[in-house]
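Methods — Computational structure assignment.
A single polypeptide chain was analysed. Its primary sequence is given first, followed by the predicted tertiary structure written as structure tokens.
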Amino acid sequence: MNTYAKIGAVLLAVLGCVGTLQQATAQGFTKTSDIAYRSEPIESDYAREQCKLDVYQPDGVEGYPTIVFFHGGGLRAGTRQSGELFARRFTAEGIGVVLVSYRLSPKATYPAYVEDAAASVAWTFEHIAGYGGDSDQIYLSGHSAGGYLTLMLGMDKRYLAEHGIEASQLAGLMPISGQTITHSTVRRERETPEGIITVDEAAPVYYAAEAGPPCLLICGGDDLPLRADENRFFFATQQNAGNKRVSYLEVEKRDHDTIYTQIENPDDEVALAMLAFMRGPSIESTKVGETRNVTVLGDRIYFAGQPSADDLAEFSRLGVETVVNLKQPPEMARVNFDERATVEASGMKYLNVPIGGDPPSDETLGTLFDLLSNSDENKVLLHCGSSNRVGYIWAVYRGVHDGLELEKAIDEGKRAGMRSEALEKWARDYIAAQSK
């Protein structure tokens, strides 16, 4: 398994327009077709024909997340109908899908197709609630050229800003085998000689010095020449820009077609990675010796109450590299062994970050946030006496560092052990203050 396939494995572990209404099918969705998404007057018959979308609503689900999906075809061919297999796969998971058609080259040239994509996203923000969706949970995805459009909208913030939308309002980007340099069709339109690689304002990676929205890059190990290299480059530049919410999944033995066409399979690695990305971390209860209230996020972060000396040795065997103790000195004195010495004897790093009667400082939270955000490289055990303070730290981390909606952050904190009303109030107050 190569390095980027391993990254994907970790990700999986963490796992006003009128249309034509069609009745719900056996797959559990309702489809509304041929919706015109451009609100301004359109003089071109071609634009009127192309600028349409279909909405797929999962039956029986309210407030569902939505994926706006752009088809592939090199910006020169393709139709939104090719995305139906994608729509069927995700509506079965309770997720809405908007399939988009856009103008194509050579009848339209850059940036017309990007502008169309932005208009379709603006339509979704304005109208998806009327179809039962949640406008705060809009993701973008697409295959090949559609992946390029996905990244352009997330990275070049001017396109959505034309519609009064901030790119940061997007819940995430999930491009599949998208170009990250200046698209080959754009280069062709400009009569750039074949084989000349260009990175300019028409390239998503051109904007990568600034961290973009959460992003899951997906590519096939046997994809088109240079396509995986482009995605690796984009991943590296976003990491360098400080975007810790970018991941890259490279699936071995999948080519440019099969990386997309197998997505309809229930156990498809790409679909499962996208679902894990959308659903966020899953905190699960587990058992490690006699330690109280142990939960785990994937296999990278353990939350717990006070472990015994034997249990610390077990955490070491599980691969924990850093033990963070949130207890104050008087509490630590009541433990019948030297925790620091025990941890260090097991080959782990020990850190005491005491949290007590007052809310922790920004500096203290920053120290803990850094540890949590680097947990893919350094497996962490975060513990206190009962995991109450641990859950508080996780709620604040998710709400501030990851930008998770307040109630969801509080819920995750409770699953990680937060029970105190006082700590919940601290978390709510801090997240609210930081979001202003």
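Note: The radius of gyration is 24 Å.
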